[in-house]
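Holo model, magnesium ion. Inputs:
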Amino acid sequence: MAKTRSVYVCQNCGAESVKWLGKCPVCNEWNTYVEERITKEVSSRPGLVNVSRNAIPKPLKEIESNSEKRIDTCIGELNRILGGGLVPGSVVLLGGEPGIGKSTLALQLALGLHSRKVLYISGEESAKQVKLRADRIMPDNQDCLILNETLLENILTQIDAVKPDLAIIDSVQTLYSDSIESSPGSVSQVRETAASLLRYAKTTGTPVIIIGHITKDGSIAGPKVLEHIVDVVLQFEGDQNYLYRILRSSKNRFGSTSEIGIFEMQNSGLAEVLNPSEILLSHHDEMLSGIAIAATIDGARPFLIETQALVSSAVYGTPQRSTTGFDQRRLNMLLAVLERRAGFRLANKDVFLNIAGGIKVNDPAIDLAVVVAVLSSTFDAPIPGTTCFAAEVGLSGEIRPVSRLDQRVSEARKLGMKEIYISKYGVKNLDKGATKIKIIPVSRIEELVKQVFGKGNN
Ligand code: TYD
Ligand code: MG
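Output:
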């Protein structure tokens, strides 16, 4: 018998309570509890999914493995992140900021799968809008089925009738189920719709891609439970003002999470970027000061990237420090190290730092390039375009080794770099085969300044 009950659900973390609370005891957020009315008994255990009713225990060796049956997505970068293609019956959650290109990527995937039946369920855009987008991306192949619907029960009926090879939901926050009274996008609705889609994927073996919005702080909107129940969580990121987009997986039950995919947003959709270093370096002819090239690694991928710094006298009493693509606190730390350990007076200077292409870099190996770019701008002394840097800078001014140096050195060599500065303590881990590139080991900031700029303190 259908029951109606009312619960208060935290819209931030999904915690439930029988009464309203001002502060969520689980995630400590204020004013996040909203009353949600739930009808139907099934919803009382929304997170629980019945994969198969007559399941019995089986020895592991008797279970069929279907690793070879992955579906090729026809997008190389996506295949790589997924660990070799879409696994039948898997549920992939694709998150990202509005306008980053989630719908474009999903539609491109749908249109690219020529021989398969793909159902694209759009709750956000009308079928006409999807058509306009498809005309831009792939005008000559439009076999994909489009369904404009937001009611979960109707969607499931249509999916049952069409029996697609792949279903794409854009987006989970627009769907709602009749059995829950709260509005679309609320925690109970998101949880219920995701659980139903998961049940469908697991019982029929059809892969489902769910697009999800992200909240202001960058996590996928809706309860954390959503990330727990799906098999793969992909995050699409990038700066709106730049064309590059990075796809990362933060969870993957069928592959590694260290792979990243790089795309460029073009007029006709997203293009894969196979050699990121080539476009992230500007290849200018004249020598400009304030630029240093870092050999970084993101996920499992090495690439060279330009760091640009501008140091100028501060106009106001408090100097400005501004960064794009780099942690500002880390820049402050590096400037303090330069000040204390190498005697550069930067306290009355404005420092601006940019990482090329609007790409965010978290790799500590970029420290050395940042320091060199700042010094290069201070001295107005350009660094040759064939020199790159890969090391972390410690608080006492020591230059520390970084991981996977071999990969960085070979990427630098591949791109025609002539010399690479690394930590003296990392040299022993280096493969001695790398002869075409000059390895310059340094152990302290002062030594670096002497080696690169041929001078002592200013
Ligand atoms: P969209 O895929 O709608 O983003 P999301 O679904 O993540 O909100 O956003 C795409 C943005 O990319 C939009 O601002 C327009 C732009 N775009 C292109 O530059 N080229 C294209 O071919 C397409 C389809 C979109
Ligand atoms: Mg969209």
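The mean pLDDT is 86. The first strand starts at residue 4 and ends at 10.
Archived with the compound record.
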